[in-house]
Design a protein that fits this description.
By secondary structure, the chain is α/β, with parallel strands linked by helices. The chain has helices spanning 4-15, 39-54, 87-100, 117-120, 163-174, 194-203, 216-231, 262-270, 282-289, 300-318, and strands at residues 19-24, 27-33, 61-67, 74-79, 105-109, 129-131, 134-136, 146-148, 183-187, 207-212, 236-242, 246-247, 254-255, 274-278. A hairpin with a 2-residue loop joins β1 (19-24) and β2. The protein is elongated, with a radius of gyration of 23 Å.
């Protein structure tokens, strides 16, 4: 006849520290803590616990109650005022670098009309699955799960949706089964339009990172993006200056085709943190376009993104852990 202690011992190999057990006659009542497990993993654990309990001598009825602590998942928007500043490449590499620091990170390609993250993270052609109308992010070799419209529509097909449909798609991706991810980076489309407003009002990011080139025109639009986040009370984590300086591979001379120091100066004028610069390097572009972002490696480009991720990590630690 199985007693409480015997059943606890039987469940220990599969549910150690997660199962609270009580035996009353032939009835086994089990409270199973699934905190931090994705939906699939929680269901699998429940099935295994039931199987072991039902196979125990004298057990005639098994009741399992699932419980979990509410997970606080923070959203960080990666935004720009205009396109063409390399925001998506920065977002992909920043997510990877943050994951390498030990953060559990997911990436949402919120650029509904121009998705690119499936290419950047090397998962072109892989369609996300769904369970009970809940999307399951695509796993990548970098430890950063991803959801993108690029995985839901054929490559090259135009996404001719009105704003409400695009906002609904973004909501489905944010509310997906992200498992134990503690931080979601949102690669937002450029601009300050309907989709951005829907995101900040409905999903309320914990903070926003602004990406800009040093070019004056880019800085004008970046300032508009900053103003949008200020108006909806989303803190600015900081500003990243992308495409900052080009070193000639032949002579080593550094030139500044997009200007120099503009984003840092703008951050100073606005009283915002400056997170750092990403140089204009062919290696960053080619590796990222090939689905092998340099942040996953050990070269100088990886160090650039590691430094940016360190500053984001410090901000996360100072603002809620």
């Amino acid at each position: 006849m199985t007693d409480t202690d015997s059943l606890k011992a039987a469940l220990a190999p599969i549910a150690a520290g997660r199962a609270t057990v009580r035996m009353e006659g032939g009835r086994a009542s089990i409270v199973l803590d699934v905190t931090g497990l994705g939906k699939a993993a929680g269901e699998e654990l429940e099935t295994d616990v039931r199987r072991v309990a039902e196979a125990s001598p004298g057990v005639t009825e098994v009741r399992v109650l699932l419980t979990s602590e509410r997970r606080t998942r923070r959203l960080i928007a990666v935004a720009s005022g205009k396109g063409g500043v390399g925001k998506s490449t920065v977002a992909a590499n920043l997510a990877i670098a943050l994951a390498r620091r030990g953060r559990r990170v997911g990436l949402v390609d919120a650029d509904i009309y121009g998705p690119s993250q499936t290419r950047l993270l090397g998962v072109d052609g892989i369609r996300p699955e769904a369970r009970e109308k809940t999307l399951i992010p695509v796993r990548t070799k970098f430890g950063v799960p991803l959801l993108s419209m690029g995985g839901l529509v054929p490559e090259g097909q135009a996404i001719a949706w009105r704003g409400s449909m695009a906002g609904g798609a973004l909501g489905q991706m944010v509310d997906a089964d992200w498992g134990d991810a503690e931080v979601l980076l949102l690669d937002l489309p450029p601009g300050t339009g309907d989709l951005q407003l829907t995101m900040v009002q409905k999903h309320k990011p914990a903070g926003a990172i602004i990406v800009s080139t040093p070019q004056d025109l880019a800085l004008i639009d970046a300032t508009r993006a900053i103003d949008l986040f200020h108006k909806v009370n989303v803190p600015i984590v900081g500003v990243i200056e992308n495409m900052a300086g080009y070193a000639c591979p032949h002579c080593g001379e550094v030139s500044d085709p997009f200007g120099s120091g503009g984003a840092e100066a703008a951050a100073g004028r606005l009283g915002l943190p400056f997170l750092g610069r990403v140089p204009l390097e062919l290696a960053i572009r080619t590796a990222s376009d090939a689905g092998d972002p340099p942040a996953a490696g050990n070269g100088p480009q990886a160090e650039t993104f590691a430094a940016l991720a360190a500053r984001l990590d410090e901000w996360l630690a100072a603002n809620g852990g």
